[in-house]
C-alpha cells in the first residue's frame, strides 16, 4: 500500500480541469444541461463541496460513465440510451460523484503519477482512459452504497438504482451469449459496445452482487422502493436519433 499526502481541493480541481479538456466528443446543449440539473441536485448531499460538473459524451457505443478528479462527471450516450427514468440517471450520477467525494479519483491520480514518475504539475500527460476503468471491488461497492444514498436523499426512488443494475445484469448475460441479431435497445447496445462492455464487466463487481447490495440498502434503511420514478426528460433525443438512423 502507498500512502500520499491528501491533495488540496484546489489542486485536485485544477488537475481535473486539465484532464477533462482531453476527453473527445463532449457536447453541450440539451443533454448536458439536463445532466447538470440532475447532477447538481444529487451532489448537494456530497460531503465535499466541489464544483461538480456533468458532461455528455456523444458516443452511441460508450456504455459507461466515469469521474475525473475535482468533480467532472462524464456520461456516455450508450448508457443514457438504456435508461428510461431520471431515477436511474440519479443513481449513476450518485455513484460517480462518490468516486470523487470518497477520494477514489484523487488517489488514482496520485498512484498513477507516482508509478509513471510524472510530477503532479505535468498531470496532463496521464491518459484519461485510466479514469474510465473501474476501481477496486471495495471502492465500487462503496460508491454504489454512498451514491444510492445520495440519490434517495435527493428525492429519487431507490427503484432507479435497482432497475439500472437489473438492466446491467441483462446486458451481462447477453454479453456472455453474444447475440447474433439485435432485437431491442439492450441487444443493440450489446452489438455496438462490446469493447466498452468488456472493459466494464472486467473492472466492476458482477451486476448480481450490486443488485443484492441495493436490495440490502432498501431493506436496512426502510426505503420505499415503490415510489414512482420520474420520466427521463431527454429520452426523446435518443428516440429521434433512432428514427433518423432507421430511415
List keywords for this structure.
11 helices, 247 residues, 4 strands, single chain, four-stranded mixed sheet, alpha+beta, 57% helix
Anisotropy-based shape: globular
Helix percent band:
55-70%
What letter string, H or E per element, gives the SSE order? Answer: HEHEEEHHHHHHHHH
Number of helices: 11
Distance between the termini: 55 Å
The overall pLDDT average reads 87
Strand sequence of the main sheet, in spatial order? 1-2-4-3
Number of strands: 4
- Based on CA atoms alone, the radius of gyration comes out at 18 Å
Query: What class, by secondary structure content?
Result: alpha+beta
Strand content: 5-15%
Query: Which residues sit in consecutive blocks of at least 5 with pLDDT less than 50?
Result: none
The main pleated sheet reads as:
4 strands, mixed
Amino acid at each position: 500500500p502507498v500512502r500520499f499526502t491528501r491533495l488540496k481541493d484546489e489542486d485536485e480541481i485544477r488537475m481535473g480541469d486539465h484532464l477533462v479538456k482531453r476527453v473527445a466528443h463532449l457536447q453541450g446543449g440539451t443533454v448536458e444541461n439536463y445532466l447538470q440539473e440532475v447532477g447538481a441536485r444529487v451532489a448537494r448531499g456530497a460531503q465535499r463541496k466541489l464544483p461538480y460538473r456533468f458532461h455528455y459524451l456523444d458516443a452511441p457505443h460508450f456504455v459507461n460513465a466515469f469521474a475525473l478528479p475535482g468533480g467532472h462527471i462524464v456520461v456516455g450516450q450508450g448508457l443514457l440510451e438504456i435508461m428510461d427514468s431520471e431515477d436511474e440517471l440519479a443513481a449513476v450520477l450518485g455513484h460517480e460523484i462518490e468516486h470523487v467525494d470518497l477520494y477514489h479519483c484523487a488517489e488514482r491520480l496520485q498512484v498513477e503519477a507516482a508509478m509513471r514518475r510524472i510530477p503532479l504539475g505535468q498531470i496532463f500527460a496521464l491518459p484519461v482512459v485510466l479514469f474510465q476503468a473501474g476501481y477496486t471491488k471495495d471502492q465500487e461497492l462503496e460508491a454504489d452504497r454512498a451514491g444510492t444514498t445520495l440519490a434517495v436523499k435527493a428525492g429519487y426512488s431507490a427503484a432507479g438504482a435497482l432497475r439500472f443494475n437489473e438492466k446491467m445484469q441483462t446486458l451481462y448475460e447477453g454479453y456472455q451469449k453474444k447475440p447474433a441479431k439485435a432485437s431491442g435497445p439492450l441487444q443493440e447496445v450489446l452489438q455496438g459496445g462490446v469493447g466498452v462492455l468488456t472493459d466494464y464487466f472486467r473492472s466492476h463487481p458482477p451486476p448480481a452482487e450490486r443488485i443484492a447490495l441495493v436490495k440490502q440498502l432498501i431493506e436496512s434503511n426502510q426505503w420505499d422502493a415503490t415510489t414512482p420514478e420520474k420520466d427521463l426528460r431527454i429520452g426523446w433525443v435518443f428516440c429521434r436519433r433512432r428514427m433518423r438512423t432507421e430511415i
